[in-house]
Write a structure and sequence with these properties.
Blueprint (H helix, E strand, L loop, with lengths): L9 E2 L4 E2 H21 L5 H17 L1 H12 L4 H26 L3 E3 L9 E8 L2 E5 L5 H14 L3 E5 L5 H14 L5 E3 L4 H8 L5 E5 L2 H12 L5 E4 L5 E4 L6 H12 L11 E5 L3 H15 L15 H16 L3 E3 L17 E4 L16 E7 L2 H9 L6 E5 L2 H9 L5 E4 L20 E2 L4 H7 L1 E8 L24
Parallel strand pairs: 5-6, 5-8, 6-7, 8-9, 10-11, 10-15, 11-14, 13-14, 15-16
Antiparallel strand pairs: 1-2, 3-4, 4-18, 9-17, 12-13
Length: 482
């Protein structure tokens, strides 16, 4: 999103008239606010019906989702499309269907004896109409996955998918229009001007997934209407291989995770910290793993294309900068090449990179993996802590040592002896901290993120309230009024 982008009312990547899309956005928002005013607390049956419709929508359009992803990325593994973008969203909806009755239950609170038989509880009230500005890297999972939490909490929603994936965005719009009433769920497409206008609307809550720089702009725009935000902003997620943990299995886990979506994942492995005396073993292990499991990776249907030529040029530029700085570049795939037509590129390890490289400060979002040696574990922990807290920290080794590393670092989530799985569980809240984001979606944390936790006090029998009313003739009971 770019501030002042309203002069570019026609987005060239999608051919959508942004000015008309903004008009549709405002009409859709007004219609949903009117509908919410008529039904501020959908019952359990209504919420489960909506969640079931969402799950069925994903499986019904599975083939079309696979085709749209392939069209937008040049090449996209069909199995990955089905696992994450189709069945991942459907499973999340089905999990919420089973749990939402418990989510909706009030949470009781203690009441001092001075109030007699009074009771107090927190009731989870729908917030209203929620906006979701979704990114391009997982077009269906991040546009429709959080919709699970929004509908479970009883809200209405409007989704703005990314203009970088036009086939997926159009399919999302068609799927939603075919499944939900527009005053319950709507989709508005468009380019930067639509994204800017989207963040400026008086939402009851707004979710944005994307870069730190754009997240700052979204937060600034939302602040003008005091709109509460959930931000998922990524970051440079490290792997720490504690001393003695470089094995065939651990190297396979690290490289395998890095190759998911060809590195275009917010919780992808961004760099690896490895004991200096195990550096060569990691590099040779990575080469052996690639040549044994995916020997023709960049020429195979398992390699996701980089989303656009601009993004591909950025990645090749990062490698050119590293080469010019004298960094050691290792390509595990024999004969791997960049295919500009499908935008596929092979994995490259950058061994012991100079600290001033852009890849050491920017989130990489592609198949480039810096491998950084350390001399003792304290040095590795300090390396992480001198950088902004990421979405995830991944530690391999003995559980006691790994837990100590996690306790001494900060991140949105963490995993031990694997990578990124914390972001895939329907039952566990997912999000960042500080520059990597704020708030959570998934599971009960997502339900509560999109709910108003409303404290309700019910007066019972007994108890004397007069002590806190004027006139104050004598000291009354000690009562905290907040």
């Amino acid at each position: 999103m770019a501030t002042g982008a309203f002069h570019a009312m026609m987005d060239p990547s999608s051919g959508i008239d942004d000015q008309a899309a903004i008009v549709r956005l405002k009409r859709a928002l007004a219609a949903q606010k009117t509908a919410f005013a008529r039904d501020r607390y959908p019952d359990l049956a209504a919420r489960q019906t909506n969640l079931a419709a969402l799950a069925a929508m994903m499986t019904r359009h599975a083939d079309a989702i696979v085709a749209a992803l392939s069209a937008d990325f040049g090449c996209h593994p069909a199995m990955l499309s089905l696992m994450v973008e189709v069945h991942g969203v459907a499973a999340r909806a089905e999990h919420a269907m089973r749990q939402v009755a418990d989510y909706m239950k009030p949470s009781p609170r203690a009441v001092p004896e001075v109030f007699g038989t009074a009771t107090a509880e927190v009731r989870y009230q729908p917030k209203g109409v929620i906006g979701n500005i979704a990114p391009w890297n997982f077009p269906f999972d991040i546009a429709l996955g959080p919709l699970v939490d929004m509908l479970a909490a009883g809200n209405r929603a409007i989704i703005k998918p990314s203009e970088f994936t036009p086939a997926c965005s159009q399919l999302i719009a068609d799927m939603v229009a075919d499944t939900f009433a527009p005053d319950l769920v709507s989709v508005v497409q468009g380019g930067p001007a639509v994204a800017q206008a989207f963040s400026e609307q008086p939402w009851d809550h707004l979710l944005f997934t994307g870069s730190f720089a754009v997240g700052r702009q979204v937060m600034t725009a939302a602040a003008r209407n005091l709109v509460p935000l959930t931000l998922e902003l990524g970051g440079k997620c490290p792997v720490v291989l504690t001393p003695g943990s470089v094995t065939r299995s651990t190297v396979g886990d690290v490289i395998g995770t890095k190759l998911i979506k060809n590195g275009q994942m917010c919780i992808a492995v961004d760099y690896v910290l490895v004991a200096r005396d195990e550096l060569a073993a990691f590099v040779s292990g990575a080469t052996e793993h690639v040549r044994a499991t995916t020997p023709d990776y960049s020429r195979s249907p398992d390699c996701t294309g980089i989303v656009s030529s601009r993004h591909l040029d950025r990645l090749t530029g990062l490698l050119a900068e590293a080469h010019a700085a004298g960094a050691t570049l290792v390509q595990p795939e024999a004969g791997g090449t960049v295919d500009k037509d499908t935008r596929r590129m092979p994995l490259t390890l950058v061994v012991d990179p100079p600290p001033g490289l852009r890849m050491m400060s920017e989130e990489i979002f592609g198949p480039i993996l810096p491998v950084i040696p350390y001399d003792d574990l304290d040095e590795a922990i300090a390396f992480i802590n001198t950088r902004e807290p990421p979405l995830g920290v991944y530690v391999f080794g003995d559980n006691a040592i790994a837990n100590a590393v996690i306790d001494r670092t900060t991140s949105g989530g963490a995993t031990i002896n694997c990578c990124a799985v914390h972001g895939a569980l329907p039952s566990m809240g997912f999000g960042g901290i500080g520059p990597s984001g704020m708030g959570r979606h998934h599971g009960i944390e997502g339900f509560r993120e999109f709910s108003n936790a409303r404290g309700v006090f019910v007066r019972g029998k007994g108890g004397d309230m007069t002590g806190i009313f004027p006139p104050y003739v004598q000291p009354g009971p000690a009562i905290e009024l907040g």
